[in-house]
Amino acid sequence: MIVILLPSSDYDPTEAALPWAALHAAGADVRFATPTGEIALADRRLTDQGFSLLSPVLMTRPAALDEYSRMCRDPHFQSPIAYADIRDDDVSGVFVPGGHAPGMKSMLDSTLAQNIFGNALLAGLPTGAVCHGVLLAARARNPHTGQSVLYERNTTAVTTTLELSAWTLTRPWLGKYYRTYATTVQSEVIAALKNSKQFHRGPIVPRRDGTTKLHRGFTVVDGNYISARWPGDCHRLAAEYRDLVISLT
Predict the structure, then answer these.
(1) Looking only at Cα atoms, what is the longest distance across the chain?
(2) N or C: which end of the chain has fewer CB within 10 A?
(3) Which pLDDT score is estimated for 176?
(4) d(C-alpha 237, C-alpha 249), whole Å
């Protein structure tokens, strides 16, 4: 089974739903894992509440919301597996969406979730992460070296420019909403790598991709691991992760 790791709440709906939809359409056996086996819903500000005048820029796009709604009706989504009940022998791949609201810490700080991802990556299984989800990959440890499982990998993640730009725009009324941790994602991920050149920022000005505009998305593929920066990369990420799953399983 391909496991999509989710926190207790607050993940980005685009970053979970588009990869799920691509895998589901390809006939993959996709399951969901959450901290305690409870159903996990996405960040409500991204699905319902919005950002006032900034909603057209920051809120989830309608097509992705449709896929999220469809994902939420999936029987496996309605019956997630607790992290502690995931067995490595049952896993054929792992994908980690991102998000920046407080509920994300229930996944990113979890050694159980980190181990699920790290064991899959080290076993050569198809693994993927996007945005803040790359933090979980960076925090996963290779038990033989004590270093991050990404230590010798190429990767991307939400860049400092993207993270701080969103925070600056919203902090007058949302405070630290866009600052999950005091350290930026890019800084922590780079610190886990052997060399800072392994982190790839992508185009300075990001462009949202789409089903017919996959070239606008930015991904980094290194063997059995693929990463992306933000929801605007996720059509391409979903297609490439699906292809990675097909080629490796």
Answers:
(1) 50
(2) C
(3) 87
(4) 18
Q: Considering the chain, what is the average pLDDT of its residues?
A: 96
165 secondary structure, DSSP code:
H
- Those residues whose C-beta lies under 8 Å from the C-beta of residue 102, and which sit 6 or more positions away, are 10, 180
Predicted confidence band at 247 (pLDDT cuts at 50, 70, 90)? Answer: very high
SS3 1: coil
Cα-only R_g, the chain: 16
Q: CA 179 to CA 185: how far, in whole Å? A: 9
Residue 75 has what pLDDT?
98
Dihedral of alpha carbons 142, 96, 221, 201, sign: negative
Nearest to 103 by CA among 164, 46, 50, 163: 46
DSSP 8-state code for residue 182: S
CB proximity list for 201: less than 8 A, separation 6 or greater: 156, 159, 161, 186
Contacts within 8 Å (CB) and 24+ apart, 208-213: 208/61, 208/232, 209/233, 209/234, 209/235, 209/236, 210/235, 211/235
